[in-house]
Design a protein that fits this description.
Strand order of the largest sheet: 7-6-5-14-13-12-10-8
Number of domains: 2
Number of strands: 14
Order of helices and strands: EEEEHEHHEHHEHEEHEEHEHHEHEHHHHH
Structural class: alpha/beta
Number of helices: 16
Bound molecules: D-xylose, nickel (II) ion
Strand content: 5-15%
Helix content: 40-55%
């Protein structure tokens, strides 16, 4: 496979001193860290939509990025060429996983039956390429937001006919995800949200979303699809308010509708910051509540209020993310999926490689830093010290629920004003910097 990126050979690890822009400086897939290889820890995935279907089009202008696999007149030929290009790219960049939306891989036809036939054809090709290359599917998903029928949402649409159409799409997308051995299936809200409450019955729409997800769980059982289901939170864009706003909101929703056993979350870095949280916060919330699943690894621009989907390059972010993930036990079914796109002016095929190399190296550095931080325990010890009071008889009694307000009052009357301690934030920030 050397047709669509003929100038580029397989990307190799050359070490931190290399000046070769087409080599890894830090990502050394076979290198062992804390008992696992870097590849096993990081589980990189390339997304089909931005990387192969991204054209640089924006609200102010038409496509700038013209790819050689996008040239054929017949859209099914384009779909085939793109699939070959994708697997050539996956192999050359050296990722273990990929992921897609149904409509990325096969163009929609005039009716559902014809559309599904097209999907079957391309899925068969993907299956062959997976077995030729060993690249696996980390998750599948469906696009329930681009077509005009979904302008008012999919499962939260005011019309049950649109709900039904969306169900057909998920049914099919789940079937092909299963055929391709997908390790998961992601639900990102798309247009599930509202523009104004003046026309929206929010409570009813959320009931419908839950009904839809219950149907997905039932169908998953019916076809014996073993993959993990994920919900991907995002607070806004395209709608003014997206129902799956953040991890906390998704957790409440899953509990209310008795879906907690079936879903984990797919946390996207840029969505976290749009929600006013750090990436690390969203990861930690999921880990603390047993709903950590997978990651859409990208970054936003702090000056901008939308999902810029840039490739992750910030070593602070990747270090803190990997510190949190490693301490939380690492990935099980999920991984680091680059839900990121090259900028509109990055029009060369090489730019796709630079982008992924930079992102993989950024996470490899994050992983190495995090492993050292964990081994040294310098941060952990300070945190332990900060909470040491909870291991005293008083702390234990409170945590075990063996004491109430009356006894606590007695305690304070006897012992007086609590002793205070410094939070040592600046010291901790300095220690973190030693690892960056
Ligand atoms: C959009 C989402 C989307 C999902 C997959 O903001 O990040 O790309 O990851 O539908
Ligand atoms: Ni995403
Ligand atoms: Ni996004």
């Amino acid at each position: 496979m050397n047709k669509f990126f003929p100038k580029i050979k397989k990307i190799k690890y050359e070490g931190p001193n290399s000046k070769n822009p087409l080599a890894f400086k830090h990502y050394n897939p076979g290198q062992k860290i804390m008992g696992k290889t870097m590849a096993q820890h990081l589980r990189f995935a390339v997304c089909f939509w931005h990387t192969f279907k991204g054209t640089g089009a924006d609200p102010f202008g038409s496509p700038t990025i013209l790819r050689n696999y996008n040239r054929a007149k017949n859209p099914m030929q384009v779909a085939e060429d793109t699939m070959y290009a994708a697997f050539e790219f996956f192999t050359k960049i050296g990722v273990e996983f990929w992921c897609f939306h149904d409509r990325d891989i096969a163009p929609e036809a005039d009716n559902l039956a014809e559309t599904n036939k097209r999907l079957d054809k391309i899925a068969a090709l993907a299956k062959k390429l997976q077995s030729d290359t060993g690249v696996k599917l980390i998750w599948g998903t469906s696009n329930l937001f681009s077509h005009r029928r979904f302008m008012a949402g999919a499962s939260t649409n005011p019309s049950p006919e649109v709900f039904a159409y969306a169900a057909c799409q998920i049914k099919k997308a789940m079937e092909i995800t299963k055929q391709l051995g997908g390790l998961g299936y992601t639900f990102w809200g798309g247009r599930e949200g509202y523009e104004t409450l003046l026309n929206t019955d929010m409570g009813r729409e959320l009931d419908h979303l839950a009904a839809f997800l219950h149907m997905a769980v039932d169908y998953k059982k019916k076809i014996r699809f073993k993959g993990q289901l994920y919900i991907e939170p995002k607070p806004k864009e395209p709608t003014k308010h997206q129902y799956d706003s953040d991890a906390g909101n998704c957790f409440a929703f899953l509990q209310k509708y008795d879906l907690l056993d079936h879903f984990k979350l797919n946390i996207e870095a840029n969505h976290a910051t749009l929600a006013g949280h750090t990436f690390q916060h969203e990861l930690q919330f999921c880990i603390d509540n047993g709903i950590f699943g997978s990651v859409d690894a990208n970054r936003g621009d702090l000056m901008l209020g939308w999902d810029t989907d840039q490739f992750p390059t910030d070593i602070y972010d990747t270090t803190l993310a990997m510190y949190t993930i490693l301490k939380g036990g690492g990935f099980k079914t999920g991984g680091l999926n680059f839900d990121a796109k090259v900028r509109r002016q990055s029009i060369d095929p090489q730019d796709l490689f630079y982008a992924h190399i930079g992102a993989m190296d950024a996470f490899a550095r994050g992983l190495k830093n995090a492993a050292k931080m964990i081994k040294d325990k310098r941060i952990e010890r300070l945190v332990q010290k900060r909470y040491a009071g909870w291991d005293s008889p008083l702390g234990r009694k409170i945590e075990k629920g063996k004491i109430g307000f009356t006894e606590l009052e007695k305690h304070i009357l006897k012992n007086g004003e609590p002793k205070l301690q410094s939070s040592k934030q600046e010291l901790l920030e300095n220690i973190l910097n030693e690892y960056i």
